[in-house]
Amino acid sequence: MEEGEETKETNAEAKIPEESDKEEKSELESKASETIGESLESKEEKVVEKEKESPEEETTKETKEFEEDVIEDADEKPIEPEKLTEEEQKKLVEEMLDKEREKIIDKKAAREQEKKEEILSSWVPKTKLGKDVKSGKIKDINEILDKGMKILEPEIVDSLIDVKTDLISIGQSKGKFGGGKRRAWRQTQRKTKEGNVPTFSAFAVVGDENGHVGIGVGKSMETLPARDKAVRKAKLNIIKVVRGDGSFDSVGGGKNSIPYKVEGKAGSIRVELIPAAPGTGLVVGDELKKVLKLAGVKDIYSKTSGKIRTTFNLVKACVNALEKTNPKEGKKWFV
Question: What would the mean pLDDT of 66-85 be, rounded to a whole number?
């Protein structure tokens, strides 16, 4: 009997934890269902709110996107030429061409500056003057020109002043009946047994537009080497030009013209340069304008005689006259 009672007690005790486990499971299931229901309700509410708010937000987004597109189109799309007059169309075309020219000029200037920096960085001076300039003992080109020192390295001029170059039109392109436009390179031919051997020559002008100018001639079998030789020789032949304000004895102290009347000659050509008041401009030939502009002269009168079609001698006579503005310039000038 005692054993039967003990077995009943153990069965009762075993039933108790099973019932407790069931209760805990039911509680967990109820809690999970409640949380799931709450989350679903919250999601439904959010969806409803989004549906309520979405039309307005979509409209605002669409309007913003439309406004941005309109702004971009206004910036990018050009004006229709049909709505413009002929004068306005011409102005637009001129503005576009001017912008393109400015971009090309800026790119060219940047390339020249980079090239100049590379040349100066790799420059190894061979003369005493070049070593003094490289070391920084001489910082002004007027110190060299006033003492009459000879420049044998073009890098000396590049390191002391901001050099600008231009080519004189001494050649002529081929055309019917001896016509054709003037060009920078003059072409000549030499007859040989193998055939014609062409050579090209160029006439360069260099200056800083601040009282320094030089000219030089270069010859080669090709065009670009001839130009480089001419520019190099022009840098070696640079001179100082004294400027005035165009009045009697340069009372005003300006630097737009020359201080007094000077005359230069080369061959049969005589060039007389006469001071002029500010605003007069350069009253000279087209090729002489290039020389005077790079020399820093803005206003001047001129008088020429002789065979002025010979451009070589015309430019040489002009430079000879400019050289006479500087009484300290004692050397004889050669091209």
Answer: 53
